[in-house]
Amino acid sequence: MPLKAKQIKVALLSLATGLSLTSIVAIAASASEGMDDCKRLESSAELVMRARQAGAPMSKIWKVAEDTHDDYLEAMYKMLAKNAYETPQYSTEPMQQRAVVDFQNTFFLACISNLEKKTKKKS
């Protein structure tokens, strides 16, 4: 199997595994919210962008999202996929890593900003 195909397969397997773990954690920790949710979103963003940078077709990520059979997770992963595929696929490892970290940071920042707004409204 050529290296690029192997990278795509590993990225998709990581994404599917991450989706399964996110689902289990979300169910087990349904009473907790806030920062844990932001960390899960950040982790999910990393998995999706790694798959994107490895060259996985968007349709494969979309299918993985649909296979979760969980409306919330499906919507979250589809939203992440849409945003990831608006980012170029880079050819060098440093640029790919930068794209992954930037993508993670974007969603983590949005999540904690939203969390801060909710906290201020409750005060």
User: Whole-Å distance between the termini?
Assistant: 57 Å
Low-confidence stretches: 19-32
Assembly of the depicted chains: single chain
Q: In DSSP terms, counting alpha (H) and pi (I) runs of 4 or more, how many helices? A: 5
Envelope shape: globular
Largest sheet: none
The portion of residues forming beta strands comes to: under 5%
Number of strands: 0
Rg over alpha carbons: 15 Å
Please, how many domains? 1
The level of helicity is over 70%
Mean pLDDT: 81
H and E string: HHHHH
Secondary structure category? mainly alpha
Keywords: Signal
Protein name: Type VI secretion system (T6SS), amidase immunity protein
Signal peptide: 1-28
Account of the 3D structure:
With 123 residues, this protein is mostly helical. The protein has one domain (3-122). 80% of the residues lie in helices and 0% in strands. The chain has five helices and no strands. The protein has helices at 3-28, 35-53, 58-66, 71-84, 93-122. Helix 2 (35-53) runs antiparallel to helix 5 (93-122). The longest helix has 30 residues, at 93-122. The chain is globular. It starts with a helix and ends with a helix.
